[in-house]
Specification:
single chain, 104 residues, mainly alpha, elongated
Length: 104
């Protein structure tokens, strides 16, 4: 069982990921729509909204996932330490990287 599963934060991870991916999709639609899409009111506004949504979702994810014992931000800590695969490190870790807390 992973750390996020054991601490009940896996749904938070999925929600933040879905918001970030949704923002990327909206940004792509807005940038690729151009003049040909009559259903999009303003493609630039849609692209900017997608960028803000994607960055906001990822930032929220970095601050929301915390160790219940030492309150370290799990994803933020993994990214700050220069891990090239910090999302997988945070997602599949069995314990907190700072205090070693391993929930049962």
């Amino acid at each position: 069982m992973t750390f996020l599963e054991a601490t009940g934060q896996l749904k938070t991870f999925y929600l933040g990921t879905a918001v970030s991916v949704g923002g990327a999709i909206l940004m792509t639609i807005g940038l690729r729509a151009g003049e040909s899409a009559a259903w999009v009111i303003d493609p630039i506004s849609l692209a900017l909204f997608g960028i803000v949504l994607g960055i906001g979702g990822f930032t929220w994810l970095c601050f929301a996932l915390k160790c219940p014992k030492c309150r370290t931000r799990i994803l933020w800590n993994a990214a700050a330490h220069g891990s090239t695969n910090f999302i997988a490190d945070a997602l599949f870790s069995p314990k907190c990287a700072v205090c070693g807390y391993q929930p049962k």
